[in-house]
Amino acid sequence: MNASVIARIAKIVPLAVVAAVGVTACGPTEGGASVAASAPASAPAGTSSATPGAGAVPAAPTTEAAPAAATPAGQAPAAGAATARTDVKAAAKAAAKPAAPKTPAPSGGSGIGITFGGLSEGGKIGLNDLVPFTVTWKNNDATGTRSVAPVVSTQQYQGAPCTMVLAMADGTLERKDASGWKKLDHLSQGGGMDYAGTADDAAFTLAAGESRTIEFRMRLSLANRPGRITIEADAPVPHSKNYLDMAKAELNAVVVDSHSPEMLSVMPPAKGVITTDPLPFSFRVSSPDGTAGLRPRVTVWSSDLLTADGVTVEARVGDVWKPVELKDDCGLVTVDPNVPGVRDGNTVEYTFRATFKEAPKDGANVDIRVSADSNGHQSVQRSVFLRDAR
Hints:
Layout: H1 3-10, H2 15-26, E1 29-30, E2 33-34, H3 81-96, E3 112-117, E4 123-126, E5 130-139, E6 145-148, E7 151-154, E8 171-177, E9 180-183, E10 204-207, E11 211-220, E12 227-235, E13 247-256, E14 262-267, E15 279-286, E16 294-302, E17 311-317, E18 320-323, E19 326-328, E20 332-334, E21 342-344, E22 347-356, E23 366-374, E24 377-378, E25 382-387
C-alpha cells in the first residue's frame, strides 16, 4: 500500500484505522513472506503427511500493532480501531507464550487391565480353607511399556475379629514368586494407602499387549465371622506414592463356615436411651453342631473409652442375675460365660443386662453387640443397642 493511496484514504477514514488495517494486512515479514506465529514442524524427508496436501497453517502475527495516531480532541476514536489493536496484541502474547509440556502417562495407570482367575464373583470362601487364585495384569496400550507392582489385599471386612475402628480380616496371604511361595506381611488393608506399596519387590514391566499372571493363595482364620468380603488387585507404579491413577479390580465373595452358630433373632432393650438403670436384652442362637458347645458373647463399646469399672454385665440364669467377667478386647467383652440360657431343641435364648455406672456423655457413641461361639467357630455379630452421635 503506497503513500498516495494512504493519503487519499486518510481524508475519509481516521488514521487510527489505517494504521491498524495496515499492520493486520501486511504483518511482519521475513524475506518478503508473512511469518506464522507457530507452525507444526515439517515432516522429515521421506515421510509423507497424514493428510495429502496438508501443511502449516499461518497463525496471527507475533508483533504488536504500531502506535495509532492520536485522535483529535473532541473526536471519538473510530469504531473498530481499539478492537483491531487489542486482537493483534492478544495474538502476539499467545504466540509468545511457550506451550505447556505434556506430562507422560503414568506407567501403571488406566492402561493396565486386571482380571481374577480361580475365583468367581459371588463365590464362596470357607473359613480356615486354603483358597488359591490367580491375578493377571495386562498392558492394554498399543505402544510403550508399563511398570507394575502386583498388589493384592482384602478390603475392610465386617466379619473381622474387631470392627470397632478398623475392620481388618485376620489370616494369611501368599504370593508365588520364582523362588516359591512367599508369605506377605499383610492380608487386609488398614486405614490408609500403605498396602499399595507392599509389592515393589515383585514389580515387573509389560510391553504393549503383554500380560503376566501370578498365583496367590489365602487363608481366613477362624477368628473371622461369616460375611461378604472384597478382594482387591492393584497396579501401582513401583516405588511411587501417587496412587490417583492406579488401576484396580475387585472381586466380591461370600465367607462361609459350616460350623458357625446362627443368630436367629435379637430383642433390643425396651428403652432407647442409656441411663444408670439396667438395660436388658435377649438373643436367640442355634448351632449345626448342637448346643453343648455354645457360648454367648456380649461386647460393650463406647467412644468414652469405657473401662470394666464403668459398666456391669449380668446374665440371667433362671430367676437370678449372675455377673459376668469382662475383658478389654476391642471393646469390653464377656469372658467365656458358661450360661445355660433357655434351650428349645437346637435353639438357645440368652438374656443379659448392662448397667452403666454413669450415663455416657451426649456426644459419645455406644454400641452393644451380641454373638456366639461354638468350639472356636464364630457367629455374625448383631447390635442390640447402637447410639451413633456422629
